[in-house]
Write a sequence for this structure.
């Protein structure tokens, strides 16, 4: 199946794949947003969030999962973004690969790339938090506790504030998929401790729903079997060929 430039605008070339045999491979923070919408016949694999710390390891883990899963399905849905180039070079020999055309998962939580752009224009210096990120503990705020134990409170404060010098806002994304009061309060306390403006943003499942059910429009990259993920796929919209 090819996505050609001269295809009629009203025809969606991926329609047959929306109900094909699919499988999800997702980050531990993203899968929480996907699970409420996954049909019971769509299995999923979860990769540890900590793999993001070393993009090359994340790439290796993703490729291993793709190699393992692709012979048994027609479509692999990746719950990731570009993620520090970790997905560049990935390939499924026998399955289609679908991934949101985003730099990271913030757009996934907000519901669209456009929503992310709106927030970026509103306040470029924003650190985003979700329930998943707070639980994963991979933030400067978690690292701060380790710095306190090693260097003491005063020095740790200086070091953490240096890491956060370009941030002015802490935005907590409420995706509405779970009880978040305790996580909201954690985010408020963090913002107060480091003199960041706190704001709660309404998330949306729109991008997740589109990934699971379609349509795979310009917000997604769709690779046919044998194609390789390229960086250009994330910056140039349209056919992946």
């Amino acid at each position: 199946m090819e996505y050609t430039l001269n295809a009629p605008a009203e025809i969606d070339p991926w329609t047959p794949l929306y109900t094909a045999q699919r499988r999800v491979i997702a980050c531990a923070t993203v899968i929480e947003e996907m699970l409420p919408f996954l049909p019971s016949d769509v299995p999923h694999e979860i990769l540890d969030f900590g793999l993001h710390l070393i993009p090359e390891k994340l790439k290796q883990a993703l490729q291993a999962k793709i190699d393992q899963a692709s012979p048994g399905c027609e479509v692999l849905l990746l719950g990731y973004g570009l993620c520090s180039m970790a997905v560049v070079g990935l390939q499924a020999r026998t399955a289609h690969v679908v991934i949101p055309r985003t730099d990271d998962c913030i757009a996934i939580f907000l519901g669209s790339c456009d929503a992310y752009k709106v927030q970026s224009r509103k306040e470029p210096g924003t650190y985003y938090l979700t329930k998943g990120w707070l639980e994963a503990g991979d933030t400067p705020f978690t690292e701060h506790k380790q710095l306190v134990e090693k260097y003491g409170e005063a020095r740790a404060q200086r070091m953490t504030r240096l890491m956060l010098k370009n941030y002015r806002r802490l935005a907590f994304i409420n995706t509405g998929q779970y009880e978040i009061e305790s996580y909201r309060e954690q985010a408020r306390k963090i913002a107060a401790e480091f003199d960041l403006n706190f704001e709660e943003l309404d998330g949306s499942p729109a991008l997740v729903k589109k990934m699971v059910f379609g349509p795979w429009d310009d917000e997604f990259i769709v690779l046919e079997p044998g194609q390789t993920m390229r960086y250009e796929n994330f910056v140039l919209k349209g056919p992946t060929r």
